[in-house]
Design brief:
The protein is an alpha+beta fold and about 150 residues long. The protein has one domain: Thiol Ester Dehydrase, Chain A. It is about 25% helix and about 35% strand. Strands 1, 2, 3, 4, 5, 6 and 7 form a 7-stranded antiparallel sheet that branches. A hairpin with a 2-residue loop joins strand 6 and strand 7. It starts with 5 loop residues before the first helix and ends in a 5-residue tail after the last strand. The C terminus is likely disordered.
Length: about 150
């Protein structure tokens, strides 16, 4: 089998982004219902190790920063057979009004989602005002966990 080309890395990182957003209450259906959208305004991918078609991979996501309209996070794609990190994607997403195409604040429920996770017995990081920084918050396609300072 051939190697996994750039299109597949990007697609898998996109799926991981939507999985993470869904865990925070921002599913595509909910965004549409609110007349909102998410836009990736910056994406940088570092390819560390080649993957091949059929390789089993997992993606963990660390939320780096949350502001009133902006979410920054890092995905790490791991080759499950070797345990090696195959690629890393650093992304910045902006919450926006789907009609005006202008950035807008996240709904309060977005921030409250961290509280909900905490009530479910999952450690979460706290927020403080306009600029909220969340370090080392890994999210995988299979679950959600935190390693907050």
């Amino acid at each position: 089998m051939g190697h996994m080309n750039v299109m597949w890395y990007t697609g898998k990182f996109d799926e991981a982004s939507w999985s993470m957003l869904a865990r925070l209450g921002l599913t595509q259906a909910r965004l549409r219902g609110l007349g909102r959208a998410m836009a990736a305004v910056q994406q940088n991918i570092t390819y560390k190790q080649e993957l091949y078609a059929g390789d089993l991979v997992s993606i963990r996501t660390r939320i780096v920063e949350v502001r009133s309209k902006v979410l920054r996070f890092i995905h790490e794609m791991t080759n499950e057979a070797t345990g090696d990190i195959a690629a890393v994607a650093e992304l910045t997403g902006v919450h926006m009004d789907a009609l005006t195409r202008r950035s807008t604040e996240f709904p309060a429920e977005f921030h409250e989602a961290f509280q909900d996770l905490s009530e479910a017995g999952i450690e979460t990081c706290s927020f403080d005002g306009e600029k909220e920084t969340v370090d080392n918050l890994p999210v995988s396609l299979n679950g959600y966990a935190s390693m907050c300072d």
